[in-house]
Amino acid sequence: MFPSQFTYHRAASVAEAVELLNGNEGAKLLAGGHSLLPMMKLRLASPPTLVDIGQVAELKGVSADGDGVRIGALTTHAEIAGSALVQERAPVLAEAASRVGDPAVRNRGTIGGNVAHGDPQSDLPTVLTALGATINAAGQNGERGIAAADFFTGLLENALDDGEIVTSVSVPGVASGAGTAYVKFSHPASRYSVVGAAAIVSVANGVCSSASVVVGGVESTPTRAASVEAALAGSGVGADALAAAASAVSGDFQGDAMGDVYASSEYRQAMAGVYVRRALEAAVARGG
Amino acid sequence: MSVPVEITINGRVFSGEVEPRQLLVHFIRENAGLTGTKVGCDTSQCGTCTVQLDGAIAKSCTVLAVQASGSTVNTIEGLSDGVDLHPLQEAFWNKHGLQCGFCTPGMIMASEELLRNNPSPSREEIRHALEGNICRCTGYQNIVSAVEEAAGAMGGS
Q: Which of B62, B108, B130, B134 to mutate to test the interface with A (most CBs of A within 10 A)?
């Protein structure tokens, strides 16, 4: 399968990429290409111009940022999964990155491309929302940060303005002693998450003192499991308490649950309860 | 409108003018004439188009040739010296790790990266590393056994 024809530009800097993006009507950015090229091959997208940012060095790499990490937009899933800094400060992000697709996909796919594409069955949007990360973007009017919770606005839609590019993602460090986990139900061929659940749980004196729980794969954007978080607040963390809290997730879906030939919307919602429970159990077991 | 592309494949430089939309796998097969790398699902799921791109495996059906311009690619043909089989090729033969053979180039390229990073993988780790490679013949048992045998032959266990 071939994409339809397009004009190709290779940008050498963020400034040049922004200029090319704004100077060419309908232009799209190409990083690892693992979200955009499949869409173009299926002719679901036919941009007239591609701006290849794959060689822009200033967009690569992981660095310390306060007590958290700043991850350049071009950093691959494999690099995130293997980063000692990410493993130490936001282990749930490294865990999720290690479960994206398969090894070859993780070598090419980037965090910037992943969030800009915003596939609801992708893993990183779920985890970045749970972590309270910020997506940093640059455009003709300068730079700004967008909270992950505000960034994903709909199916393959995000809060970027036309002509803006994702430059990095800022991830706050997980609180000392908190346990984290990301578990997913992988589609057997594509490895996208049919359901993915991220949990960050702090426990003090046997009682849950704070929890952040987010579910992906069910609705068109990551779902914050506010009912689960509320059920956990001040609750014990035994198996029965966690199972009861997890079952509350059914109240967090707003009626736009997705379904397809592989997994109906009812099935995805049922599995969300199962995977939230598993994420809570793993997070509690790892905390302390 | 064509663009110039220069890619080093298995140590040899291939250059040409291609349409920007030409995929790397087609450059490898048609411009370089190396047909060991296959086009299977063409949707970056099956993995038979797996090659090494600048030292890390990639699905060449999901990379534009022009994206890879200036890069180094190694394919299944570059794995052996042309005389002796690579230990992975030998092991796939010994263990009957293939039936039709269509997935084998990708299986071997993905396994080669695994053994470079982890010389003594468990069977579970082998299965995890081959998640992006689909075989419709073997049921995978013999493929996993072949990778295990190759690990032993290459000095791991």
A: B62
pLDDT in tens, A40-51: 999 999 999 999
Residue of A nearest to B135 (CA): A189
Residue A2 lies in a domain: no
CATH assignment at residue B133: 1.10.150.120
Among the candidates A52, A70, A85, a domain finishes at A52
If one counts the domains in chain B, the total is 2
Q: Last residue of some domain: B26, B43, B78? A: B78
Judge if A73 and A160 occupy the same domain.
yes
In a domain, A192, yes or no: yes
Last residue of a domain, one of B27, B48, B78: B78
Residue A1 lies in a domain: no
Give rounded-to-5 percent helix, strand, coil for chain A.
35, 25, 35
Regions of chain A with pLDDT less than 50 = none
Q: Taking CA B43 as the corner, what is the angle to CA A110 and CA B118, rounded to the nearest 5 degrees?
A: 55
Q: Answer yes or no: do A8 and B132 touch at CB < 8 A.
A: no
Tokens standing for residue A143:
């730079």
What sign for the dihedral angle of Cα A215, A217, A218, A223?
positive
pLDDT, one tens digit per residue, over A210-235 is: 999 999 999 999 999 999 999 999 99
Mutation target for B interface from A75, A100, A108: give the one with most B CBs within 10 A: A108
Range of the domain at B59: 3-78
Domain housing A12 = 7-52
Chain B residue whose CA is closest to A9:
B20
Q: What is the CATH number of the domain that holds B73?
A: 3.10.20.30
Cβ burial of B147 (10 Å; 0-12, 13-18, 19+) is buried
Q: Where are the alpha helices (DSSP H) in chain A?
A: 14-23, 36-41, 77-82, 84-89, 91-97, 103-108, 111-117, 124-131, 148-151, 226-232, 239-247, 265-286
d(CA B11, CA B78): 8
All residues at 6 or more sequence positions from A233 whose CB lies less than 8 Å from its CB, including other chains: A208, A210, A211
Q: Where are the alpha helices (DSSP H) in B3-139?
A: 24-26, 87-94, 104-117, 123-129
Tally the domains of chain A. 3
Both tokens of residue A211? 């929890």
Does residue B157 have a pLDDT over 70? no
Do A67 and A164 share a domain, yes or no?
A: yes
**Distance (Å, rounded) from C-alpha A240 to C-alpha A35?**
40
- Contact criterion met (CB < 8 Å) for B47 and A189: no
